[in-house]
Amino acid sequence: MTGDAPALAVRGLSHAFGRTKVLDDVGFTLARGDFTVLLGLNGAGKTTLFALITGLYHSGAGSIAVFGYDIRRDASAALAALGVVFQQPTLDLDLTIEQNLFYHAALHGMARSEAAPRIAAELERVGLLDRRRERVRLLSGGQRRRVELARALVHDPALLLLDEPTVGLDIESRRFLIEHVHRLCAERGLAVLWATHLIDEADADSRVIVLQRGKILADGGVREVVAGTAAPDLKTAFDRLVRAA
Amino acid sequence: MSPIRYWRCLAGIVRREALRWLHQRSRFVSALVRPMVWLAIFGAGFRFVLGVSIIPPYDTYIPYEVYIAPGLVAMIQLFNGMQSSLSMVYDREMGSMKTLLVSPFPRWFLLASKLLAGVAVSVVQAYIFLAIAWFWEIEPPLWGYLAVLPALILSGLMLGALGLVLSSFIKQLENFAGVMNFVIFPMFFASSALYPLWRVKESSLTLFWICEANPFSHATELIRFALYGQFNTIAAAIVLAFLVVLLALAVYGYDPGRGLIARRGGEGG
């Protein structure tokens, strides 16, 4: 990681599929240890933004740097520092929890001896250590999400991206996931970008970035954003921002 | 990234492919049953319809089953290549393709590893088939079993690369039927797998040239000659050339800046 570079720096990012502009001059930075909620309705451009940050494909304009490493020029260094939980489920259902995690560790070039304690530690944290030899197919939706979170952390990334991680989960699983990620931020100094369309996932202390039709409408602490629109709460503030856009 | 990390990544991808193959029992069984059906039923049925004269690499008259066995080995690899390409389309729709592509290793290396993993599985399948086929009097010389290994790797890579290219072009996962109708059947039937090309030439010159242009014919001939301890230079050169072209197309298809994956983008918010 290079010096004091921010965990994530996105500058002047625009992207279009054909004639449809999906992202329009998006820019923000994430400091180490920041928990940031990327708030936007479906179709706001969140998933495209994530695809660009993870280098799945490149943008038409703008730049993305992870801890100072440009995703185009230093993709390897940038991706090594990145942990991702995708919106879609991405586990092999026929493989065991452990096999899935070892596969991920191998994709990061980790030796099995190096990966085993990391996998055990992360599974322990999400309460699934004793089920590590079970097939993923047997797990509930909430448990699968927990496995995916554990997987994203196996290679000890310093920046964690989560794309709508709570979709389809019950209240209990949602709360577990949110609290767990908050703890990771506090304990490990992990920078987190949490994309969601659920306004209540941003608590009063979070930073929030509001994305609508590919543009950033607001960026700041929840209290700031609420105050900026003279709204009583974030939900009203969000509605006002979206309507004004 | 040190070489040892590259090795671990490759080993991990191969291990996953092998585990998936073993766990998906229906895929495992059907991969073995399919060529056996051809050999035991089709082969027996046509035994007295189609006579095969003495042609290289055979030095005597052979039963029809012996003639089609190398083509069936190539068919196993063709199915495998298509199945792994479909599993990549499936992976992309299901998102597990993303897990692969966010690895810090270069993309060409990840795709090559994925390809090698598929080939490893197809080579094991081919040997299992050859072992069972021995009971149908498909008895090539013992050293032919060893000599066929490089041929299997080369043809497996070429057919796997074809699968990779298709997976980067197929937009959505429809079903296996489309690939069966438009790729597997034409490639298999318009080739030297089921009938020697000199016989095809007698009935239609156009079809003969189609068969000659079909890389699957050359994969089949490469395997056929190797199985009898001979090296078919032309077939090897053509298979290799197709491999290079298809690999280049696949790397292009998955290039984050230019390829189709970039133009298509992702769905959702």
How is this fold's topology laid out?
The complex is a heterodimer of chains A (245) and B (269).
Chain A: E1 8-17, E2 20-30, E3 35-39, H1 46-53, E4 61-66, E5 69-70, H2 75-80, E6 82-85, H3 97-107, H4 112-125, H5 141-153, E7 159-163, H6 171-188, E8 191-196, E9 207-212, E10 215-221, H7 222-228, H8 234-244
Parallel strand pairs in A: 3-8, 3-9, 6-7, 7-8
Antiparallel strand pairs in A: 1-2, 1-4, 4-5, 9-10
Helix pairs in contact in A: 3-4, 3-5, 4-5, 7-8
Chain B: H1 3-23, H2 25-46, H3 64-94, H4 96-101, H5 107-133, H6 142-169, H7 176-189, H8 197-203, H9 205-213, H10 215-227, H11 233-253, H12 260-264
Helix pairs in contact in B: 1-5, 2-3, 2-5, 3-5, 3-6, 3-7, 3-10, 5-6, 6-10, 6-11, 8-9, 10-11
Overall average pLDDT of chain B: 86
Helix coverage percent of chain B: over 70%
Mind summarizing the main beta sheet of chain B?
A: none
Number of strands of chain A: 10
The share of residues in helices of chain A is 25-40%
List SSEs of chain B in N-to-C order. HHHHHHHHHHHH
What structural class do helix, strand and pairing data of chain B support?
A: mainly alpha
Strand % of chain A is: 25-35%
First and last CA, distance of chain B: 34 Å
* Number of DSSP helical runs of chain A: 8
Task: Supply Rg of chain B.
Answer: 19 Å
Q: Roughly how many Å is the radius of gyration of chain A?
A: 18 Å
Distance between the termini of chain A: 37 Å
Strand order of the largest sheet of chain A: 6-7-8-3-9-10
Q: Please state the oligomeric state of the protein chains shown.
A: heterodimer
What about the largest sheet of chain A? Answer: 6 strands, mixed
Q: What is the molecular shape of chain B? A: globular
Shape of chain A: globular
| Alpha plus pi helix count of chain B | 12
Mean pLDDT of chain A: 92
